Amino acid sequence: MHFPGSGMANLHYAAELAAQQRFAEALPHAEIATEVFPDTEPSHSTLGLVWLKLGQPAQAVKELQEAIRWGPKLAAPRYNLACAYARLGQFAEAYDTLRQLARVDPQMLAFAARDTEFAALRADPQYGERLRRLVSSSQ
After folding, report:
1. Helix axes 91-104, 75-87, angle to 10 degrees
2. For residues 116 and 90, what is the distance between their CA atoms, to the nearest angstrom?
3. Where exactly does CATH 1.25.40.10 map onto the chain?
4. 17: nearest Cα among 37, 3, 35, 38
5. What is the CATH number of domain 1-72?
6. Which of 5, 16, 95, 122 minimizes the number of CB atoms within 10 Å of its CB?
7. Residue 125 CA neighbour count, 13 Å, CB half
8. Model confidence, pTM
């Protein structure tokens, strides 16, 4: 499907495809939505999630940082940003982002305790114990 003139249709279609885990199909629609709506959280958040799930964490970081800029109180883009940092091996950034998440939505930290995205962070000698304490303090 193509919606060349409608950023909103592309955004909704990209989000639906992402919900179905059809990330490669969602990518062009999320990119169009971000071009049409460069100043909104949903377009950047959707594109960031798609990039993350397509194994492109550096592109995901860029989009998710922008999403947080437009929606600083939203938990999902912040969680996904922490995932992207963890994939890049940027554990300090991942941990700091999770600390920020604890202030926005502490319940989301429970996912980090078991999410495979954070397995390397949990195993890291410097950040593993910090993450365990952060998750415990938020419950």
Report:
1. 170
2. 16
3. 1-72
4. 3
5. 1.25.40.10
6. 5
7. 0
8. 0.91
Whole-angstrom distance, CA of residue 112 vs CA of residue 98: 8
* CB contact at 8 A, 94 and 65: no
Please report, as a single letter, which amino acid is at residue 95. Y
Write a three-state SS string for 7-66: HHHHHHHHHHHHHCCCHHHHHHHHHHHHHHCCCCHHHHHHHHHHHHHCCCHHHHHHHHHH
Of the CA atoms within 13 Å of residue 104, those in its CB half-sphere come to 18
Kindly report, residue by residue over 1-50, the tens digit of the pLDDT: 555 667 788 899 999 999 999 999 999 999 999 998 888 899 999 999 99
pLDDT tens digits, one per residue of 98-131? 999 999 998 899 889 899 999 999 999 999 999 9
